[in-house]
Amino acid sequence: MAYGAEPAAERPTAPSRRGFLRMTAGVGCSLAASPLVTPITLLAAPWEARLVVVILRGAMDGLDALRPLGDPDLAGLRPTLLAGPSEALDGFWALHPGLAPLRPMWAAGELAFVPAVSTPYRDKRSHFDGQAILEAGTGADVAPGAVRGGWLNRLLGALPGATAETAYAIGQDGLLVLAGAAEVRRWSPEARLELSAQARLLLAHLFHDDPLFRAAGDQAMEIAGRLAEVAADDADAPAMAPAVAAPAAGPAGQIAAFAADRLREETRIAAFSLGGWDTHRDQARALPRALGALAEAILTLKAGLGPHWGRTAVLAMTEFGRTARENGSRGTDHGTGGTMLAAGGAVRGGRVHGAWPGLSEGALYAGRDVMPMADVRAWAGWAMRDLFGLDRGLIERTVFPGLDLGPERRLVL
Amino acid sequence: MRPQPIEVEMRLGYGPRPGTPPAGGAEALLARLDGPDRAAAAWPLPAFESVAAEALEFGQVQRAARAEADAVGPAGERLRAMRRTRRAAMETILAHRLARAVEGDDPLRERLVWFWADHFTVRAREDRLRPAVSAYAEAAIRPHVTGRFADMLKAAALHPMMLLYLDQTASVGPRSRFGVRRGLGLNENLARELLELHTLGVGAGYGQDDVRQLAKLLTGLAYSLQDGFRFLPERAEPGAETVLGVSYGSWGPARIEDIEAVLETLAARPETARHLARKLAVHFTADDPDEGLVAHLAAAWRAHGGRLRPVYAALAEHPATWASFGAKVRQPFEFMAAGLRALGTGAAALAALPARARARLGFGALRLMGQPWEEPPGPDGWSEAAAAWITPHGLAARIDWAMAAPEALLRSGDRPDPRALLEAVLDGLARAPTREAVAAAEGWREGVGLILASPEFNRR
Questions:
Q1: Backbone angles phi, psi at B31, to 5 degrees
Q2: Residue A53: phi, psi to the nearest 5?
Q3: Which positions in chain A touch B386 (Cβ < 8 Å)?
């Protein structure tokens, strides 16, 4: 069955004028484009939109997070997992109770889902390869791990005026999605580094000839110094302190609060990961924890971003979905089609996007998984086009090389 | 190319310990593997069975405590005492694991135990089983690091911690009597990781059918704290299963021997030799290892039927092992052990610190460096990539430990001159900037801290 019609195919080739103007406002084109200007000398990204990418490691069960209760085959596939209250969104879809804290966001039109999406990865269902492909943003023609950098880093390389502060990879996770040639910041909120001025100089000397240590050491000292300044400013002028998020309870909230702090300043792109999705058994017990952390992260971002939330899109993506059928231990095994969550004031929310393949025996992929109806990269690609006003061809050539973005996906306003 | 003694100590061990005679080359380190395992006896770890017994009792006491009003009765008191005991047990485990590396004289064995325990990663799914992670490595990994890979594979794959971690205890043959009666079925987790991670490697030519068939073959393996390990034929899928073209079992009663047979077959596959040869080369020599070295290790593996001791000899004898010296970054536990060795101190000094300092320089430091103790991110274990460890926050944590630990651990009479320590610890490997920085340090604390934070000390 089809749920929602696919938009008609069209191939706009001209860059979005609106986005182009948005991006170049405040900085001269020639300056932004000049290779002679080192990015670090530009003070701030010349655009206001913000993108947060959350990698959900372990394969989120999209079928449980966003339940197609109206699908006649769901109940038969999920005899125990549907127990407990669902949060009905419309006549067809319902939220897992673990996502209930996001319900007001749905009502406000700031929360959307795209079910039945996947990367081009098929059949072997390895977390590690699946995540490598999701983050590399590569196609089926590229072996997992063959491309070392991530698509978000390539986006950065394509954005005029991007500086070292523009993108932050947050947490202990390596976040391949932001790795690559363009300089990004990496930090984990619990890290600390207190050094005398002389020790900083000597460490810089110590690391100078070793590129790996120099890059990490310079950043560590710069970030720690900057955070110390911000903390000192806040202490000096409490009345001037920005509206920070409510004290975050869990690690997901802490990471999101740090992300929001940075995104209120010069940073425009942030990435972090959340784990706990590999629910092979007792999913009804395991999944609420992971969903709760995701909800906490999103709510913390919204609270922390304040007025900037309106120009923000959060995309939560996972390496693949899980089996349509419950397995023998009240859990689910590795599958194919998964679900993307999008949140933020810039998101066309309050709706489930894309096409739904149905769950009948014949509709399943390989007789076991949700059939992917679209490449998750196409959805992310269109979101970036609309957020940053990028040219479609640039996304197809540079960010997701070789991808045909296909019909326009209006996930972002 | 003959490596320098210090290169051998850093690549195959935990680096030099000033005041202790050097290991004496790769041959000497290899020879120690053939002798008795003295470190295991000197710094014992808890047995899995005793951890399991305590975990079982913990569950019973926990239920009793819940029944007590406000948990103030004797059961609540006992529960708190058991939690304290478990925390102390975890501290002892870290101290003994460190002591084996820092004070023992068989460092290659410790490095190999680390490598193989990481290859067969398990995590505790419940706090009460946290001490069981090291107990698992002690029982399933350590006795086999110089023996046959197949024996280690069987010991690891069939160990209760693996059965729990990768959900095998929840997998039931859907057509078995037990499965039909209870409406239970397969869980693919262990079967998939056995093929993808433990033996063939993800690039090998197996498919979803092989995963499914292996999952069926593995049914019947059971573990619970009450009943221990059991093989329960009534939970096993009836009939034969075909994995990679080989049929196991029959319509008779299911037998654990068929599971052991498939593990033997998987261990003997050439893809497994290749996969593990590469993994060893990656861990010991370079994130992107020399292909000749990988081929050499795989050939030794096959020539000796998967016996591991000759593979280590092949590693030590190949010139590429030494040509890439410095390409690897020490992982945080290795860095910490190397730091304690360099300072001439030991795990006892760390254990003697007040609780806060002990936590900051022990478990807390490992967490900030990106390697929370026995909590790897997934069944594929810790990253081997240098860039995964030398991140801004990871390096910040190393610098913090390097600057704080020496002062906390060494009494003023035991504090070596930083310039002398630099020679003793890096023995000719120190580059000019490191010498200059150490010489220009404001004081002893920074001088020693710069040595431990230096790229030369963090690489091997």
A1: -65, -35
A2: -110, 125
A3: 212
Instruction: Determine the Cα–Cα distance for residues B368 and B332; give it in Å rounded to an integer.
Output: 9
HSE-CB of A47 using CA atoms within 13 angstroms: 29
ipTM rounded to 2 decimals: 0.96
Query: C-alpha A110: how far from its chain's center?
Result: 15
Best A213, A278, A322, A334 residue to mutate vs chain B (most B CBs within 10 Å): A213
pLDDT tens, per residue, chain A with 413 residues: 344 334 433 333 333 333 333 333 333 333 333 333 333 333 345 589 999 999 999 999 999 999 999 999 999 999 999 988 999 999 999 999 999 999 999 999 999 999 999 999 999 999 999 999 999 999 888 887 777 789 999 999 988 888 889 999 999 888 999 999 999 999 999 898 999 999 999 999 999 999 999 999 999 999 998 888 877 776 665 444 444 444 456 899 999 999 999 999 999 999 999 999 999 999 999 999 999 999 999 999 999 999 999 999 999 999 999 999 999 999 999 999 999 999 999 999 999 999 999 999 999 999 999 999 999 999 999 999 999 999 999 999 999 999 999 999 999 99
With a cut of 70, say whether residue B85 has pLDDT above it. yes
Dihedrals φ, ψ of A264, to 5°?
Answer: -75, -20
A203:B437 CB<8 A: yes
> Could you give the 3-state DSSP secondary structure of residue A413?
coil
Name the residue among A168, A163, A348 with its Cα closest to residue A256.
A168
Report which of A356, A297, A285, A269 is spatially closest to residue A321, judged by C-alpha positions.
A356
- A17-186+250-399 belongs to which CATH class? alpha beta
Pairing, β A312-318 against β A351-352: unpaired
Nearest Cα neighbor of A126 from A206, A58, A29 is A58
DSSP per-residue codes, A255-270: HHHHHHHHHHTT--EE
Cβ(B163)–Cβ(B169) under 8 Å?
yes
Interface contact B187-A281, CB threshold 8 A: yes
- What's the rounded Cα separation, in Å, for the pair B232 and B173? 11
Number of helices and strands (H, E) in chain B?
27, 4
Q: How far apart are CA B148 and CA A98, in angstroms?
A: 47
Residue A258 · residue A28 · CB < 8 Å? no
Q: Would you mind telling me the total number of residues written for chain A in this entry?
A: 413
For the CA atoms of chain B, what is the radius of gyration? 24
Give the B window 393-422 contacts with A, CB below 8 Å. Answer: 393-397, 399-400, 403
As given in the structure block, the two tokens for residue B294 are: 């990988």
CB within 8 Å: A174 and B396: no
pLDDT at A46: 57
* A residues 77..116 contacting B (CB < 8 A): none
Which residues have C-beta within 8 Å of that of residue A17, sequence separation ≥ 6? none
Residue B378 φ/ψ, nearest 5 degrees? -165, -175
Task: Report whether pLDDT(B21) > 90.
Answer: no
What pLDDT does B93 receive?
Answer: 98
Tell me the C-alpha distance between B446 and A196, whole Å.
10
d(CA A116, CA A118): 7
